[in-house]
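[Q] Does anyone have a clean structure-token version of this?
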Amino acid sequence: MKRKHIFTLSLLLFLFLATSLGQASEFRRTFLLEAGARYEVSVRIRTNLQDAPTLASVYIHTEHGEYLRSTQLSRSLAGPNQWQHISTIVTAPPGALRATVVFTASEGVEMEWDEFNIRRVELDLADEELIRQGLVYTGLIVDARGLNLQRGMSPKVFSESGQLVYAGVAVSYGFLQEAGIASYGQELSPELLRRIQPDDTVKVSPLVVKALELSGTTESSVIISDADAQAILDALDTYDFLAHYSVVFLID
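[A] Here you go.
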């Protein structure tokens, strides 16, 4: 039977456990990465308001401090004052040295945390189990804010070198009319996140990439970096979320 192997990080890549209780509107930790490895980052959080939304953001950097990309997870917490575990998966791309994870609550919301953990995960599970446990990316978020991207029936995503990453060419006419090959919004809302959630029993784990510029005369398609394009292709080896049209564009 296939199973998941969890390894304690050694010296530079170690299990970090924060047992002391903290309180603020933001919780931030930086940790080292091994390129190609995958990590689960989690923290136990509670807030002083009912269903206060929280955002987990992971920023990945090179040894020279250059920003590579981010992964974001947004969800609402039960409450008030009920502890809940929040977790997100970090996959270190080539050239990655360290990552900074930031858990934030809405403005004016007090947040407490404890039991912060980082663990390296090696995957040897069936696709269905990987999705259920939230150990794979379940969809793509393309942040095109600031570019004046136009909504379109057939938006495309290209790499800098011209590779077509996403076009939704196999979509049926019925699905295209009902749902479209992508959703649009100004920020990550629970409604938008449902677009990239396979079903209600699994965690939403989006891969977030930044659009560099627009492409095409309709201004409804975008160009992303070659590194982000490769990150998408690597993620599809585990779970093909593009085949499910699990794509969201963030627009102005």
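[Q] Thanks! Anything notable?
[A] The radius of gyration is 18 Å.
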